[in-house]
Amino acid sequence: MSENSVEVCSRLVYMVQRHASIVGKLCPEVRTSGAFHCRHVRADGWLDVHCTTLIGTPTKDKALKYWEFAQEKADRLANHFDEGHLSSYQSRAPEKMRWGGAIRSPGDWVLSFSGFPELMDEAFMLAVVHYAGLMGRKEVVLVANVHGNLSHVNAALDALEYD
């Protein structure tokens, strides 16, 4: 396991913990908890680092749901890498409870959040990956424009910038 990957994952967890309540205030109903999942896949396809953690203090029922959804979104996105998917929104299937909220950055980091409405889950991850220095603004806009999520992403970017 690369020390760099462990350090990056730790920094991502810290950023999500620090900013979740700020971004949660942007939701129609204020939300302050969820689950965050990140992973890094090496160039040879092996999983380098993997982390799932609860953010805030969700109820027991919500905690399990968020935990499972955050991991499912990331797994599904990883299964669509060969098709060029950059967001789990591209393979969403509401009838099967498959939602957006996971994104892939250059360098094969996958970040996923569950706890906000799905477009804000995704926007939050794009803002975090940008401010962590893993994705430039141009790439963030590219992912957001795949399905018209730029307004949510800009709001999340602004929220993190002014914190």
Quickly describe the structure.
The chain is an alpha+beta fold.
User: Which quaternary structure do these chains form?
Assistant: single chain
- Percent of sequence in beta strands: 15-25%
Radius of gyration equals: 14 Å
Based on DSSP secondary structure assignment, what is the total number of beta strands?
A: 4
The residue ranges in which pLDDT falls below 50 over 5 or more consecutive positions are none
Inertia-based shape: globular
Question: What does the model show?
Answer:
- There is one protein chain.
- The protein has 163 residues and is an alpha+beta fold.
- The chain contains five helices and four strands, in the order H-E-E-H-E-E-H-H-H.
- Strand 1 and strand 2 form a beta hairpin.
- It is globular.
- The chain starts with a helix and ends with a helix.
- The model has no long low-confidence stretch (mean pLDDT 92).
Which key features would you list for this structure?
single chain, 163 residues, alpha+beta, four-stranded antiparallel beta sheet, 5 helices, 4 strands, globular
